Amino acid sequence: MSKSPDSASRDTAATSTRAPFRNSRPSTKHPSRSTPCTTPRRLPRRCGCPSASPEQPIRVEESTVSQVSELVVIAQLRAKPGQGPELLSLLSDLAAEVLRTEPGTLRYAFLVEPDTDPLRVTVIEGYASRAAADAHNTGVLTNYLPRLLELLDVAPVTVELQPAEMKVSTDDEAAVARLSV
């Protein structure tokens, strides 16, 4: 998944000491394909391309982790027995419309517990603000809610979360990004 410069800066707000970009030479051809390797030279390359020699390691002194989402909602859904495929189909349609019409919805991920009947789905929703979450709850979702509730065995269980401010010390700047949702 590629990130725009704006979304990359929202992923982590890190204060770091690192060597400036020293490699300005042209991209090296990747050995297994005819296209240039796209791994940034400042990151460790695990692809085996000729320019995979490590640069000076990046040292992240004290990183303040700032999540992509200002508000995260976790929703747990349980389909009626035998209704799992229809629930997933409805959620697929909903997700496509949400992603198309709600720019404040930064994350909308669906995870299932494998081999369960009734199917259990966990939805991870990330919003840029409280207003974006409210817009989701009063927007596209309302068109799908009646049918969604018909397919569920019990009412959805939801919890709202906000990012924790924390300091992390690590030698791996890329690892800091894994701390965000």
Automatic annotation (TrEMBL):
It comes from the Bacteria. Residues 1-61 are annotated as: Disordered. PROSITE patterns: ABM (PS51725). Residues 71-161 form the ABM domain. Residues 1-20, 33-51 have a biased composition (Low complexity). Gene3D superfamilies: 3.30.70.100. Signal peptide: none annotated. InterPro entries: ABM_dom (IPR007138), Dimeric_a/b-barrel (IPR011008). SUPFAM superfamilies: Dimeric alpha+beta barrel (SSF54909). This is ABM domain-containing protein. It comes from Amycolatopsis panacis. The lineage of its organism: Bacteria, Bacillati, Actinomycetota, Actinomycetes, Pseudonocardiales.
